[in-house]
Amino acid sequence: MLEEARRELQPFYPPDPDGSVPVGYIWARTLPFQNPACGVEIPLMRQTWLAKKDNRKIALRLVPNRAARRVDAEIVEGRAISFDPEEGTVTRAHVRCPLCGGSIDDDATRRLFREGKAGQRMMAVVLHHPDRPGKRYRLPTARDLEAYRAAEQALEEKRRKLWEEWGMDPVPDEPTPIGGGPGAERAFSVHKYGLTRWGDLFNARQKLALLTFADKVRQAHAQMRSQSADPDFAKAVVTYLAFTVNKIADYCSTLCQWRNNLETVGHTFSRQALPMLWDYVEGNPVTGASGTAEGSLDWIVSVLAHLTHIPPVEGNNE
Ligand SMILES: [Zn+2]
User: Fold this and answer.
1) How far does residue 83's CA lie from ligand 1's centre (Å)?
2) What is the model's pTM?
3) Is 78:66 a contact under the CB 8 Å cutoff?
């Protein structure tokens, strides 16, 4: 399952010419600034630290480009960080325009999201070279954007194909929870931003990856059955593989935060909630790193190994 999924998905996460592998893409959701005199596409970032460790500091600097009416970005390291990366473009839902200094209040921000005016922009790429320790950052190139667009197209095709095969939309269209009780509105704030169906919580390449993994699990079942595996055995194996897909999904949504203190991909359910996230990291599920398909399978296998080693209670055969 992993090998086949990797073979299909790898072209959508192209390595750099020097062999560095992208392990994460940092995205910012965007809003067009409503004042026509400005009209810039604002990248929404709560803060702009990429690495925030005692001995290693790297941040993204947003550079207003008034002539071109856009917000450029550059990556700045160490002592060259002469600005405060804690100051992003959005606090709670209050947005500040880096170009004209104007602002969008929280109600307007939510309304714009619900009206479908929000977009997204790739802000940085996180790389790891297999022969070198640590991670490196660079700005996105045309190649990165092409790979993403190719994934968008591939998703359309896969969705159509699986829809026919499965007899239902393979992208989950069930409503996201609204929650109940005190704090629920904040805990499930995605709802207020128009992310009202589960499928809305994933970008196109994430959907493509998850559909591919899900499809491979189904194929594994069919293959086991055709090799006359015991039906219960086949069922147990695909159930555990489904747990793996579930774990991959946890690390593969637009609610995953780049953990700049560790330089790793965070996961969706860092708490039991679905709070809105402005800037997120899209991990690469087909590398061997943590938070990826291989890591997820290791987790599930560890849990099973542990559970099956618990000795049965004396005199109790259940
Ligand atoms: Zn502006």
Assistant:
1) 20
2) 0.94
3) no
